[in-house]
Amino acid sequence: MRLNETELKRFDEDGYLFFPGKFTPAEAAMLKREAETVYATDRKEVWRESSGVARTAFAAHTYNEGFRRLGAHPRLIEPVRQLLGGEVYMHQYKVNAKAAFDGDVWQWHQDYGTWKRDDEMPEPRAMNIAVFLDDVTAANGPLLFIPGSHKAGVVAAGHDLATTSYPLWTLDRATVTELAERGGCVAPTGPAGSMLMFSSLLVHASPPNISPFGRTIVYLSLCEVENHIRAFRREPWIAHRDFTPITPLADDCLDELVAGQAVAAE
Amino acid sequence: MRLNETELKRFDEDGYLFFPGKFTPAEAAMLKREAETVYATDRKEVWRESSGVARTAFAAHTYNEGFRRLGAHPRLIEPVRQLLGGEVYMHQYKVNAKAAFDGDVWQWHQDYGTWKRDDEMPEPRAMNIAVFLDDVTAANGPLLFIPGSHKAGVVAAGHDLATTSYPLWTLDRATVTELAERGGCVAPTGPAGSMLMFSSLLVHASPPNISPFGRTIVYLSLCEVENHIRAFRREPWIAHRDFTPITPLADDCLDELVAGQAVAAE
What we know:
The structure is a homodimer.
Chain A: H1 5-14, E1 16-19, H2 25-39, E2 46-48, E3 54-58, H3 65-70, H4 74-84, E4 88-96, E5 106-109, H5 111-119, E6 126-132, E7 144-145, E8 158-160, E9 168-170, H6 173-183, E10 195-199, E11 204-206, E12 217-224, H7 255-265
Keywords (chains A, B): Dioxygenase, Oxidoreductase
Protein name (chains A, B): Phytanoyl-CoA dioxygenase (PhyH)
Cofactor (chains A, B): Fe(2+)
């Protein structure tokens, strides 16, 4: 589960690492079904696009067993602990839908920009680690990264309250262009079950999904425990206030749920 | 220049063929500079996004020497003549910009749907052949195809006058979903100079370009001469009325212009 020297060097240079197929198709399919169940519920943690379809479900690890286990999965927790050099707690947990036809844009931004401005997280000792629950292709609104942009530190941003249903601190075009002239712009694509980890300072975005296929991704935002947030302006199910270190479960922690669904389907 | 048996079989099954790097980087770069020149002119053939940046330049082969030569290039004309089984004329010629940040969506549609309804083109004996003038990637709004959808014939469509600055006969979501469940959804990506040919019945779309890089593609819509349009409701620089068969130029017809720009740059 530990990152090797090559991976550590690449993370330092690019600000992200991509592991296609890190979770099995069965694990990804089980979590996809759980996501559908969550989206179908009417609860405050499920944020919707202006069209009404689900955009993101917050804090699903607090009310869904599959996502609870994923939130302590060693394939996710251990490499992040290694990179951040300490215990981690769950700062934010999102299951982003990017629904077929309706999934809207996420504008260019840095996650730490929001965590610093809204939540007063002291340092960028926090990062994202994501699992694809659908195949992510060039066609269904993949995540876009500007490699190396994490080295720019916290860049200026404006609070965009208008573009989508979700408020976001976003970067202006001149800044994005300048960073992309140095680092380019990439879209990691791969099968359901792929894992993607990226610096909380990495500049990223994703386009609308106009394709007929959904594109669900789970994001854990993990923060080193002593670097916990100081301000509590956002809802506790968006910016969590439980700073308990996460104890990783066993690597086969999803197997029981996969088997349970397989039985139910017979 | 002729398509082989494998290519003909693949075109029949999928409705498109993709040839990465069919034109040289120098040829593509010369045409990209010509596109910038065209977009910078204030003329009726240059259609703009609601933001004001260029969306498409129509009929550039009639007022630009580079695009005039490309419009009779043997790498484009000959395979289309082979597939359509006769002489061809230029029904439409578009240089589509899909500008960085501003390039807007093209909704799901079949080109022949518009040519039949608006222009009374008798049969789908017409097709598109395109040349990438920029690298097309997962990040900058690639063209999306539903392979095999050309076999569905002309499918029902509604006239969308609202979504973008350009009116288009577009397909509903149920139809797109049903076709994609059979054929999937692909995004041919490749370097500047790549060539893409596709049936006028192939269902396609392209998402907005939110990346900091432009994505210019030239589209020739070629029609078999006896299948020329019967109605003249659209502007003659959008749906052409000159049905003269195109005589292909020599394969090196762009070299002189490439050399000329190279000299000018020294």
